[in-house]
Amino acid sequence: MTPLVTMVSSPRAQLFSCFLRLGSQQAGLLQLHTGAGLAARTHYEVLVLGGGSGGVTMASRMKRRVGAENVAIVEPSERHYYQPIWTLVGAGAKQLSSSGRPTASVIPSGVEWIRARVAELNPDKNCIRTDNGKEISYKYLIIALGLQLDYDKIKGLPEGFAHPKIGSNYSVSTVEKTWKALQDFKEGNAIFTFPNTPIKCAGAPQKIMYLSEAYFRKTGKRSKANIIFNTSLGAIFGVKKYADALLEIIQERNLTVNYKQNLIEVRADKQEAVFENLDKPGETQVISYEMLHVTPPMSSPDVLKTSPVADAAGWVDVNKETLQHKKYPNVFGIGDCTNLPTSKTAAAVAAQSGILDRTISLIMKNETPVKKYDGYTSCPLVTSYNRVILAEFDYDAQPLETFPFDQSRERLSMYLMKADMMPFLYWNLMLRGYWGGPGFLRKLFHLGMS
Ligand code: FAD
Ligand code: UQ1
User: Global pTM?
Assistant: First the structure.
């Protein structure tokens, strides 16, 4: 690949880069007039890869820093989804249609939307290539490609989803199948799985179990259901305060939790799930199900795994405090695609966006980043149709709670925040670059408290 512009820092070089940029803009206009193509520009000051939560949020913030005409987002999907609400869609408490909006409506006005997939990253030459063969160069790159759902790593999937009694809240095409399976449930095992990989929203695999239990109770089927959570992990949750609260609920509601059990095969025609015991290699167990909720293995998007920006595990290798790439100083990462050692959530993305905004603004002025990300992340643990335990914690898995009450207790107020306030905040503040997480609220609520 040949870059149009390489990274420049001295004023003379910047002038030269600017000249080149103007040149490419004019070339774009020329092409437009000759009808050669619409997305004709090939260089942007800030190029954002991925138009999900992190990508759109950062594009809004970068628009304020450098002007809309200098920012572009590469994103192939026509629809943008607010994924956190899928937990409630799978339980029949919200409509799937409420979770999506046209991508065109969330791209900040004036920012260029490049409707394509990123096919290759070439950070040594400050450019990327799209799947339709376009090369686009940048001065600053923000990588926000999310993560990849690897259903095909489980034998029998994804084709098994063609059968009834199986669903998965993690994908737009299978989340409504969870609700169907819940409604169809008659008698037997309801199994919920957690894979042997990092995942986004690590609480979601068990949230749907609590909601299902509540649904069975509401519909008089609870005594007919044997509810099983088979998890690859060795604990129910990574933060002791919330794990203790969840274990109490699990005991009260007579739910079965089996640790170190990893789903490796689904025989959807026979309604059987096969698990390997991670503590005893080679030992497997087949369990019949009346309902199966699958949380798939997840990994970094393939395009990143093989790129120079990835660490050994395939995630974008960033500084955990500044979000700047460890090797390429004009490259930054945000969200699920990074190796930030915290739980992958939209709440984390919100907090990261404020930090990254500050980091980039200082780098743009040739100054050293000062603001430090503490790993803030949050997981509203939905425990029934009107209760949530609001887990909030940092890199050290220490609670970092916003509200001045014990958030490990199930609360109606926190359910209303999750179900109604958060979507509003997401669409109207976060995606527009005005929500950097609840840090300021935490300080306000804890004023005067030691
Ligand atoms: P995404 O928002 O997934 O965006 C990635 C984007 O990159 C996508 O638009 C994708 O199309 C695009 N992309 C991928 N490959 C390419 C390519 N090659 N080229 C160009 N574009 C590409 N978070 C919470 O905070 N609270 C919750 O309660 C919560 N619950 C959840 C429940 C469920 C069921 C799920 C699925 C998620 C939940 N999350 C929750 C997690 C949250 O949705 C994600 O952590 C968040 O969306 C991550 O943002 P992101 O920008 O990193 O990735
Ligand atoms: C949050 O900031 C956020 O990002 C928009 C979420 O994602 C949907 C959340 O679920 C939560 C809980 C937060 C944190 C916000 C508050 C007010 C505690």
Answer: 0.92
